[in-house]
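Retro notes (design track)

What went well: tokenization of the new backbones is finally stable.
What didn't: we kept losing track of which sequence belonged to which structure.
Fix going forward: every design gets posted as structure first, then sequence, in one message. First example under the new rule, 110 residues:
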């Protein structure tokens, strides 16, 4: 891997994790406004990690077999688009769905 490719991947991972770090402090208050209790709040946060854990080995195999740029770029685009759906979520279930899809996108980036 060239130094340029390494830096591009580093910046992509940094920006995606920075976005995750920015949304996490606000998510509990936002979820409670939609009626989430402690259990559902845990499900919202766990959905991200669970979906990311499931997708990462699959994406890793695809990355090895095909062009990795397409996968990382698709993940970054999906990550950005899914981020726009947080304010549109109108229920606890929709927040869980957004977090799960966000986790898939994050798994594609890493």
């Amino acid at each position: 891997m060239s130094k340029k490719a390494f830096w591009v991947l580093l910046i992509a991972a940094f920006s995606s994790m920075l976005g995750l770090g920015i949304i996490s402090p606000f998510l509990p208050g936002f979820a409670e406004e939609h009626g989430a209790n402690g259990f559902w709040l845990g499900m919202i946060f766990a959905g991200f990690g669970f979906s990311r854990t499931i997708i990462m080995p699959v994406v890793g195999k695809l990355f090895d077999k095909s062009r990795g740029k397409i996968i990382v770029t698709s993940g970054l685009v999906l990550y950005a688009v899914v981020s726009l759906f947080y304010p549109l979520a109108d229920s606890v279930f929709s927040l869980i769905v957004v977090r799960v899809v966000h986790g898939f996108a994050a798994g594609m980036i890493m």
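Added context from the reviewer: The mean pLDDT is 86.
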